[in-house]
Amino acid sequence: MSETIRQIDTVLVANRGEIARRVARTAREMGIRVVTVFVDADADALHVDDADTAIRVGSYLDGDAIVEAALRMGADAVHPGYGYLSENSSFAAACEGAGLIWIGPTPAAIDAMGDKIEAKRHAVAADVPVLLSADDPDEFASVGFPLLIKAAAGGGGKGMRVVESAEELGEAIDAARREALTGFGDDRVFAERYVRRARHIEIQIVGDVHGSVVHLGERECSIQRRHQKIIEEAPSPFLGAERREAMGAAAVSLASAIGYVSTGTVEFLVDDESGEFFFLEVNTRLQVEHPVTEEITGIDLVRAQLRVAQGHPLDWAQGDIGFTGHSVEARIYAEDPSAGFLPATGTLHAFEAAAMPEVRLDSGVGPGSSIGTDFDPMIAKVISRAPTRAEAISSLALALERMHIGGVVTNRDFLAATLRTAEFAAGDTTTDFIERVDISSPPAEAETRFWGVAAAMWLQAMNRARAGVLASMPSGFRTGRLPAESVVFALEAGGGDNLEVHYRRLRDGGFVLGRDADQGTVVVHRVTPDSIDVEWGDIRSTARVTRAGDTLYLTGPKGTVGLSIVPRFVPPEAEVPVGAVAAPMPGRVVEVRVTQGEAVLAGDVVVVLEAMKMEHHLRAAEDGVATEVRVAAGDQVENGALLLVIDSTE
């Protein structure tokens, strides 16, 4: 073995969730032992179970503790994943200073390109076109409105704010700085011109210690909400060969100029009308959306990172890299699209990929995982690959629809509906897609009713299976005419009336529906503790079933329906005061902007709540007076907690 090659026998992954599991998977395939770190809130996380050894730390941002953990566990190297300390040059230098192999670009490269302000300067020096920007908050207005505020030391939508006018600027800067500090430990922000109708296209680069740098093509990541990507694909449906070559060459030129090592991503904004492209930033790490590049190139990017870190040359020159087929990735978040994509919390009682079509699932959660407010709300990535773009889109949409998810509100149905829009199929995927395209896809009433009947039949069968007395007798049995039984369900997602199912068992084992037996017959062909095959009228279908307490989750061909059993006798609920402002999710109160007795106007921000590393501004619904203020800055509140009351009659 060459003296320039440093063997990695044990790697510590300084991250959590799906990326920690993703790195561990490739490391094990290469014969490398894996150590992971975890905090108290992640004590039962799957990335802890996956590791050969796991060690507790106080924070994923505590670089000193992570270096110490790596040394204690006998690790040779540290892989930072993405987010947290992955673009922190001081952490990279600390790892190298402790004799550990840093799996990523050099600290100097992180300083030069990981810092978004510094990266722009290098791009200008390399004659790569950039957007008009300003680094000094006092000069942000000179960029013009609308402008976009961004965190200098990170990404992922944290610390980003679109500002439409000078009146909004001060508050937006303050909020962006707080989010940047929380997410990346660095509160520096900058502003750049905001292009409303554009495409977000990035070039994957890989460099080695011997001076070689190549690109692995592009990814289009234009479908975003809160400036955070939710659907990515490779290759882009927009780029032609000439522009693709120009952007790839610009990315390699910029990386080569500073001797870039390891994986990275050069991000560009492409004007949808003119086709001009502008340098945005360099992510000096692995990207969340890296799987689509792996799927069309056949190159394992984590393996490339590990080999480069050991000193091996790249396995391929630029001309050796080919692209086959098309790949699309959708990010499943614990969030409610119908409520402005607010993060959601709860327990994943059901979580299982569809058996068909076969897709790739990268996830850090499983059945029973708790989704709280401590971390980013992304819970999984689902990735398809097919010979054509149309097939990749269709297979991903179907895989999402057939995925069994229950217990936490997610954007799964929104993602599937997005993929099935005519605009997405046509490649009309600019960054304003969600704002301009109708993506609503509520389930048909007849479909919901069918699964309500299936739920009633499954519940009836399970109740009979658990019967301790006369278990062989049909439910509702009498020596005379069998009476009707009933169950009432409420849709977990809300909206619409409750589903009331009346059924009476027939002597042949089937059921007749309706209070007056006027809704047809039902035949249960097969029922197990986790599924039911049911036929109602001329429709027959099978559902995957999970029960959690009094809620049933049924997944059929078009998604999951959550049905909660409505008790026959409901205790009176506490009356919610008129004008109440409640917490839309668990979180920490950052700021209370009104005092008791103070007048407020509709639209005024009254409380700032932080949850999942993002700030959420709660506003007054109408003019009035704050008659009750029940929280203060620093308070931790639960979902639905009453924060204050605004009386519009005062």
Descriptive terms for the model:
alpha+beta; Rossmann fold; D-amino Acid Aminotransferase, Chain A, domain 1; 4 domains
Question: In words, what does this structure look like?
Answer:
By secondary structure, the chain is of the alpha+beta class. It has four domains: 94 residues, Rossmann fold (3-Layer(aba) Sandwich), CATH 3.40.50; 318 residues, D-amino Acid Aminotransferase, Chain A, domain 1; 121 residues, 2-Layer Sandwich (Glycoprotein, Type 4 Pilin); 68 residues, OB fold (Dihydrolipoamide Acetyltransferase, E2P) (Beta Barrel). Helices cover 25% and strands 32% of the residues. It is built from 15 helices and 39 strands. Strand 1, helix 1 and strand 2 form a beta-alpha-beta unit. Helix 4 packs antiparallel against helix 5. The chain is globular and about 80 Å long. The N and C termini lie far apart (81 Å).
